[in-house]
Amino acid sequence: MAVCRPSQEVDDLSSRSKIPFPVKVPFVERLGLELHACADGASEVRVDLAESHMNSWEVAHGGVLMTMLDVAMAMAARSQNLDGPGVATIEMKTSFMRPGEGELRALGKLLHRTATMAFCEATVLDADGAICAHATGTFKYVRALPARDRTLKPLQRSDSNLDPHS
Question: Are 145 and 153 in contact (CB under 8 A)?
Fold first, then answer.
């Protein structure tokens, strides 16, 4: 069974402690992103910036912000059924407003969903609550992903969500 927290408004998400991601994504782990909320069409992802996250101006690289936005939207899209299918990003539009510095929070929101698609938005805020970036995205619900050799690659659940009785 996946880990999920009770419903709260997106503005109240910052009070939550770190929870495990329901799926294994090595790239997200390598970046040090942390999931702090994921329920009822909303999510919060955080990172405390390190030197490896910086660009040549010593602020967060745009790729870090885009990854935070993508992950926050994907988690919001999956938040109503964490044991269900995964999602694949189909389209994403990002606007950058200011440099990201210090601890960053990405707040994701599911705007609308169908049986096969999710439409989401997310915002990255700095430690002072100022908006650094905003994105909208479209996601497709998928149970497996076709690979090069025409075999299906299953969704990789994180170890914390494996049922020891199955």
Answer: yes
Q: Give the Cα separation of 166 and 159 in Å (integer).
A: 13
Each residue of 91-139: pLDDT tens digit? 999 999 999 999 999 999 999 999 999 999 999 999 999 999 999 999 9
What are the residues facing 69 on neighbouring strands?
Answer: none
Residues in the chain: 166
First-last CA distance in the chain: 11
Pairing mode, strands 117-125 and 131-142: antiparallel
User: What's the token pair of residue 156?
Assistant: 């990789």
* Helical residues (DSSP H) of the chain, grouped into ranges: 26-31, 62-78
If one counts every other C-beta atom within 10 angstroms of the C-beta of residue 6, the result is: 7
Q: What share of the chain is helix, strand, coil (3-state, %, to 5)?
A: 20, 40, 40
Q: Note the pLDDT tens digit of each residue in 10-51.
A: 445 455 699 999 999 999 999 999 999 999 999 999 999 999
Q: What does the alpha-carbon distance between residue 31 and residue 137 come to, in Å, rounded to a whole number?
A: 21
Phi-psi region of 10 (alpha: psi -120 to 50; beta: other; left: phi over 0): alpha
Sign of CA dihedral 69, 73, 78, 79: positive
